[in-house]
Amino acid sequence: MIPVRLFSASSQTLLEGLAQWTPSAQASLRPCRLLPQQASPRMLSVGCVDHAKRQETPGKKPLSEKKLKRYFVDHRRVLVRGGNGGSGVSCFHSEPRKEFGGPDGGDGGNGGHVILRADQQVKSLSSVLSQYQGFSGEDGGRKNCFGRSGAMLFVRVPVGTLVKEGSEVVADLSQQGQEYIAALGGAGGKGNRFFLANDNRAPVTCTPGEPGQERILHLELKTVAHAGMVGFPNAGKSSLLRAISNAKPAVASYPFTTLKPHVGIVHYEGHQQVAVADIPGIIRGAHQDKGLGLSFLQVEDLKYELEKYEEGLSERPHVVVANKIDLPQARAHLPQLQDHLGQVIALSAVTGENLEQLLLHLQVLHRAYVEAELKRGSQPLRW
Ligand SMILES: Nc1nc2c(ncn2[C@@H]2O[C@H](COP(=O)(O)OP(=O)(O)OP(=O)(O)O)[C@@H](O)[C@H]2O)c(=O)[nH]1
Ligand SMILES: [Mg+2]
Question: For 109-133, what is each residue's pLDDT tens digit?
Fold first, then answer.
């Protein structure tokens, strides 16, 4: 499961489809303005990086949640083996009229490492295979020829990949281009020339190359979005993600439609992209792995669940979103809700009403985050 950094929640007792929206304290984009044409919020330039291939075409049946899940993978178990070292050889120089040419067996080349490299272009671990074998070094040759070393094998993983061995975290690839040697290549063997010494002028010893290192690693995608939505099942989180981005998470009128996080990209002017995650509905006792309870959460309950999951999570910058404002009963409850909670963005994912207020607010939160990150001297996450 991905620990998404931003959340939204909802309370159906207060207002149908209330959701809380928080921007990630881990990641953000440069500030930018929304595109000018805002006649309809759906006219905004929106897109999705990792789900682009499942855009619905007219006449085509939408993919089920089960099928959608296959496109996004946030953990992988990988067997990595470094390349084997090439063997050294044992042979002697041979030339006419030169009786004792001496040892001239070359060393074997080293095996290549298997290296994990964080790459911004990669958005999911779905392209990572279950095993990798590094390139082996070549054997040594006659005439002191050394074998060629095996090439490095680079495995591209998304930025934000945690590498675990057993339960220990061995690497955190949180920056573009960061690398981790997952498996070392074996050292090449020595040819008999290497063993030439004053007391042994004709060594016949040579050594084989060493096998590459073998490890089982668990890759986990830590950060997938700048903002996340947490809320009740059925609050309309997936509908909202569909409305503001090109992502197409499944939407249905029953709870727990969403089983895995989906990421949609909101495009702002100047090629700025904000990744928004839709995560499965949260319920009371969710931190104890409980299923759907009898009573739905209030906002305080939601904050409690977030705190239980990770301390300080509910204090992150956030905004409460009240969805389904197109429904008369929801609209009637709005003033009461605003009295209770202060700022609430009331919108409708279905009609598109007031979506731009949310998008502008998201941008403001991002701007603040980017500035804070740069001030701290760290690079904000970029999509
Ligand atoms: N009237 C109205 N219905 C909405 C709105 N947004 C969502 N719905 C409906 O609410 C139901 C649930 O929507 P989803 O987007 O699947 O809700 P969700 O929060 O993703 O639900 P889970 O994935 O189960 O947590 C669907 O039947 C939607 O059509 C809205 O703004 N207005
Ligand atoms: Mg959903």
Answer: 999 999 999 998 888 888 899 999 9
Q: Which of 17, 42, 34, 46 is nearest to 351 (CA)?
A: 42
DSSP string, 161-211: EEEEETTEEEEEE-STT-EEEEEPPPPPPPPGGGG-BTTBSS-----PPPP
Mutate to test the pocket of ligand 1, among 251, 283, 353 (most ligand atoms within 8 A of CB): 251
User: For domain 75-221, which architecture applies?
Assistant: Distorted Sandwich (2.70)
What value, to the nearest 5°, has the Cα angle with vertex 212 and ends 209 and 216? 165
Where are the domains positioned within the chain?
41-71+224-375, 75-221
Contact residues of ligand 1, CB 6 A cut-off? 17, 233-239, 251-253, 255-258, 280-281, 323-324, 326-327, 348-350
- Sequence-distant (6+) residues with CB within 8 A of 321 are 8, 10, 18, 19, 20, 21, 229, 240, 344, 345, 347, 358
The DSSP H or E segment spanning 242 is: helix 237-244
ipTM, 2 decimals? 0.98
Q: Are 71 and 64 in contact (CB under 8 A)?
A: no
What 3-state class would DSSP assign to 318?
Answer: coil
In CATH, what class is 41-71+224-375?
alpha beta
Q: How many Å apart are CA 383 and CA 369, to the nearest integer?
A: 15
**Interval 276-313: pLDDT, tens:** 888 777 766 555 544 433 333 477 777 787 888 778 88
Question: Which ligand neighbours the alpha carbon of 235 most closely?
Answer: 1
Task: Name the nearest CA neighbour of 268 among 303, 238, 227, 233.
Answer: 227
pTM, to two decimals? 0.62
